[in-house]
Amino acid sequence: GQPVKLIKAAQTHAKGGYEAAKAIDTEGQTGWSTGLTGQRSVAVFYPEKPLPAASAWSIKMSFGRHYPATLGNLRWSISRQASEPSPRDMPHEAEQALLRHPNNQAEGREALLREFCKVAPELAEARKEIEALRAKLPKPTSTLAMRQRQTDNLRQTRVRHRGEYLSPKEAVQPGIPAFLPPLPNGAEVDRLAFARWLVNRDNPLTARVTVNRQWAALMGQGIVRTVDDFGLQGELPSHPEMLDWLAGWFMDNGWSQKQLHKLITLSSTYRQSSNPREDLSSIDPENRLYAKGPRHRLDAEMIRDGMFQAAGLLSTKMGGPGVYPPQPPSITTEGTYGPLTWTASTGEDRYRRSLYTFAKRTAPFAQALIFDAPSGEACVAKRDRSNSPLQALLLLNDPAFLEAARGLAESTLKQQGDDPSRISFAFARILSRPPEAEELKDLVEFVNRQEQRFRAQPNQAKALMGIDPKETTAFGINLLARKAAFTALGRMLFNLDETVVKR
């Protein structure tokens, strides 16, 4: 066959000067880029001579390593009309309707009507009014969602021998590993079938793993301690019958994690005292028989959220984009791939739950990292738990915990009664129990000493309260010293072992 020379091209969209004409020039490093993801784009290529009728054509396309300029779901049409057609961003459904006889256009009439409303000159003013109204609408929060390709365009997967990705070998089909229960006979092998297989009653592994992780989160260790490994290298369950019963109960109750948490936390096993017992120190030092209640340090997110909750600052707002709690500038200005703009959030967003903290793998949130939160570079089913002086320094000096202590001081001073009753209020807010008589006596003495110190050194009181030493406060030195003393009380209570340890 003879090659067909293309002399020019036109398109509906082009990005950065990469028009369709650059797809047919002699430069191998250029091409057509639409800049539109998931949207329809049209290009028209014009041959030098009209195409002969009743000819077979072979179209060869070259795709280079231009990842931002990739195209997908290509469709070609050839026209032999004398005039040069212009590229039109018309839906395929409307195009097909136009090609049918007028008496047979009922199927695509709605698509034709929509296209007519978009291009009819007599409706131009109405379209401008509609676009102006749409521009005033608030932008919705967008969420990335993964969607499977159409069944007629599934990607073929091949084995790469010795990992050689440039030499794909035999094709493979989707399926379930042979050592696990198979999919039901006749089921279409897709993601929906796989999801149904995961939660099928004949496949209890999913429920076992789930309840074991929830048990580990609440009790400090799983029934199977290797929560991320139920295979041959994992540990055997300490209570296999209980694990199976919980898995069955979980499935019978609609896979409700809320109900599962309620079941575990109301059990006598969970509600036991966690105080050390001499009679168990040699028999069961790791509490594998659950003769004591759980005792372990809380996770990073629980510590932060719990302190904001105690201070009355925690925001219950749900959804929305990530927020940026305050942290040292060096964490974000020295990122692996350049600095990260980290402007500390203000207002309610400053006290959002830790779930909403913006996460960047190369610059993880330092406060959480110090309390052993994973960086996000790998999936971690079981966190390490360490104890270090840096954690105590963080609880004393981190801006977030200082603000929590100030918030607790404000709410405490608003309480009616004398200082012992106010101190008991703050104590119960943090530790969920009233102070013992000896504890209360020590705390009252601590507050009195701190108040005297801050009254004698007002600049230190201002520094603790986040006030510029040169600034004149709206209240007197006595109230400033009192607020600073109760802020110091909050800092001390936040730093107690009992505050950050579940017992």
Identify the quaternary structure here: single chain
Extended strand count: 6
Q: What is the share of helical residues? A: 25-40%
Specify the number of helices. Answer: 18
Q: What is the chain-wise order of helices and strands?
A: EEHHHEEHHHHHEHHHHHHHHHHE
- Termini distance? 82 Å
Let me know the largest β-sheet: 2 strands, antiparallel
Structural class: mainly alpha
Uncertain runs: none
Q: Which strand order spans the largest sheet, edge to edge or round the barrel?
A: 1-2
Kindly state the mean pLDDT as a whole number?
86
Approximate strand percentage: under 5%
Shape: extended
Radius of gyration: 33 Å
Which features characterize this protein?
two-stranded antiparallel sheet; 18 helices; 503 residues; 6 strands; extended; mainly alpha; two-stranded antiparallel ribbon; 5% strand
Short structural description:
This protein has 503 residues and is mainly alpha-helical. It is 38% helix and 5% strand. The strands form 3 sheets. The chain has a two-stranded antiparallel sheet with strand order 1-2. The chain has a two-stranded antiparallel sheet with strand order 3-4. The protein has a two-stranded antiparallel ribbon with strand order 5-6.
3D architecture notes:
By secondary structure, the chain is mainly alpha-helical. Among the domains are: 77 residues, no CATH class; 209 residues, no CATH class. Helices cover 38% and strands 5% of the residues. The chain contains 18 helices and six strands. It has a two-stranded antiparallel ribbon with strand order 1-2. A hairpin with a 7-residue loop joins strand 3 and strand 4. The longest helix has 20 residues. The N and C termini lie far apart (82 Å). The model has no long low-confidence stretch (mean pLDDT 86).
